[in-house]
Amino acid sequence: MYYRPIGVLEEPVIESKPAYDGHIQTTKFQKFLLGMGSGILALTNPKRGDMVALMGESTGECSLKYMQSCMSNDPTGRRILADQPRINSATVDLDELAKLPEGTLGHEYIRFLNENGIHPDDRLPVEFVDDPSLAYVMTRYREIHDLVHLLCGMPTNMLGEVVVKVVEGLQTRLPMCVLGGLGGPIRLGPKHRNIYFTTHFPFAVQTGLKAKSFFNVYFEEEWETDLEELRNRLNIPKIPQTPKLKNVHKT
Amino acid sequence: MALRRVLRSSLGFRRYSTHFGYETVSENEKGQRVGEVFSNVAEYYDLMNDAMSGGIHRVWKDYFVNKMSPRSDTRLLDVAGGTGDIAFRCLRHMKNSALPDEHQSGEIIVCDINAEMLKVGEKRAKQDGLELKWVQGNAEELPFPENSFDVYSIAYGIRNVTRIQKALEEAFRVLKVGGRFMCLEFSDVQNPIINDVYDWYSFNIIPVTGKLLSGDWKSYQYLVESIRQFPKADDFKNMIEEAGFQEVHYEKLMFGVSAIHSGFKLK
Is B203 touching A (CB cutoff 8 A)? Predict the structure, then answer.
């Protein structure tokens, strides 16, 4: 027994063995506290990526189930759920991808990573999701996040992140994405907010509603596909230009 | 829990295994894992202390140092003193209680097994312009000769030591005759209602706060479990007497959440 009941406030027993490596067991009340706390901290200090991640994990159970069912209804999605492929430096040969011809998904992905100073190993492991298969869905969500950025043509500054959050929110129904999409614009300066509401937000909504789910894309098999062709196949509308702005809040 | 304890003592495991929070681990492992905990939390240690105790730990430490009442000629060893909370208070007390023109012959040495914690303490000392000695060492095997200190203090450190009795014996060794052992540590709450509230707070709020503020759940889970594994105030008093100390007394603070144990080396 991991926890003992404490009066009426504590929930009864939870499983004594962690469900997967790195799993931290928590009660519903603790998940609630973590969700609230991380939401506030993420909004007030967007640099705390771990708080954004935590918010997703502690509030995302229903959404993860929805995503899992979406994936189960698609043949490629089913394969992904069965194979549980991972995207990190151990599973993907980043050097090989860089050598692919320009315009391919693999080549553009590496270019995107280098331009924005990010790396697939930066993703935090999932800790608070209790079901191991849902934990994989969450992991997959994190690992394809950069690819979603690439497909939507959005940079990793605050403006781009908010757009991607809106797209992801519509595709995944994760409360963290929805709230990030709603709350994020508050942190944008007036110029960027203007750009956001005139071109980027409509684009995000259209993409979120019309595009095919990114969770059913077996990216590992698409490295050599032409990026534009992939975007067309996924019904992503025309991508608005994000002008290079000074002082755009970097996440 | 009870079953584990029965198994451990009946199978003779008591001598060879110890606890890391609620996990039973080998003695070597405990030292290493405690080390990891404190390397992880060093940076946030002071912030988390304030957040978890609502600032009350400051009151406890002030009271502890007041009780100790170090003088300007006291030689003090503060063990597991990492970030310097006790040492800084003692230094200020010594400065304030010195007569004008009195030569300061006292000395404070802060000893901690963890280099990260010492670094945080040294940084704080520089910021405040205080002069102290910082030595890395193990409470079970202190790098000091016998009979060298007037006071040995250990605040919120002894529960992390693998072999507590050994640490107590070391304390006895390095103290001069007439020297005082003082320990401030979490203790047992006897009142059942307050204990329930305290437990609820410990298990629900503390690891959550740790995760939110410092991104580390596991270290703070360890913290609340290690408090419950530590001997009760009376048992600890017996352990101190076993190490050779006399006139051993304890005083509970805030219903037993913390307690100050004190003993003297009279022979």
Answer: yes
